[in-house]
Amino acid sequence: MSLLELKGVTKQFGGLTAVNQVDAAIKQGSITAIIGPNGAGKTTLFNLITGIYKPDKGSITLAGTSLLNRKPNQIAGYGIARTFQNIRLFKEMTALENILVGMHTHLHSSLISTLLRLPSVRKEEDNAARHAYQLLQTVGLAEKCNEQAKNLPYGEQRRLEIARALATKPKVLFLDEPAAGMNPKETKVLTELIIQVRDDFDLTIILIEHDMKLVMKISEEIIVLDYGQKIASGNPDEIRTNPRVIEAYLGKGAVRNGL
């Protein structure tokens, strides 16, 4: 069953068409990769779905609900969370505090209750702290709970971003180049984590990634963009041998030479 559907999604910036008539149907519980050469429109497509940009044409629906003309915080409330190419943690906060920031939309205490420090507020805060710690355990960072985010190694900062996204209780998790800048050991840990959180949290995961080994290993569906257009979609074996994909990455000569 399709959870997220895009039909004819188009976005122009001046005379440049960054995303051009893109259709997609993302299955619930799947791991889908969006790939393509630099400038293909991948991150722009993410930004359209998450409300950072508004499409000029087309429709975007999540479980039948239109996401058009919704603000990013509203779309997050419908169950979409994301990470970014550039890490966006609160560097001076601890790992645990970063998770708690991600949980704020699900806390219910009123301002007056908080100011008065009523028992209900303390209970909610204790429950939130326990859940945040559990999320840190999920991503292998429980022992770093009181460490400032800026002091964590790069790969651990990436995993902390994923934990913070999970704190919003999403239905769909968007990962924008999660393995960028990682060494092979960090990438292996990340690969296993993506599969784990999909299964443990019953998530649908969509990622942009240039690490083709990671993409081919974990993706059940791959969508390929080039110059803003979808040129192919299918499983890893289909994409690996698709002439249009080979041409987009390696040029027409690669197709002629049978690469």
From TrEMBL:
It comes from the Bacteria. SUPFAM superfamilies: P-loop containing nucleoside triphosphate hydrolases. GO terms for biological process: D-alanine transmembrane transport; L-alanine transport; L-isoleucine import across plasma membrane; L-valine import across plasma membrane. InterPro entries: AAA+_ATPase (IPR003593), ABC_AA/LPS_Transport (IPR051120), ABC_transporter-like_ATP-bd (IPR003439), BCA_ABC_TP_C (IPR032823), P-loop_NTPase (IPR027417). One of its GO terms (cellular component) is plasma membrane. GO terms for molecular function: ATP binding; ATP hydrolysis activity; L-isoleucine transmembrane transporter activity; L-phenylalanine transmembrane transporter activity; L-valine transmembrane transporter activity. Keywords: ATP-binding, Nucleotide-binding, Transport. Pfam families: ABC_tran, BCA_ABC_TP_C. CDD domains: ABC_Mj1267_LivG_branched (cd03219). Residues 4-252 form the ABC transporter domain. This is ATP-binding cassette domain-containing protein.
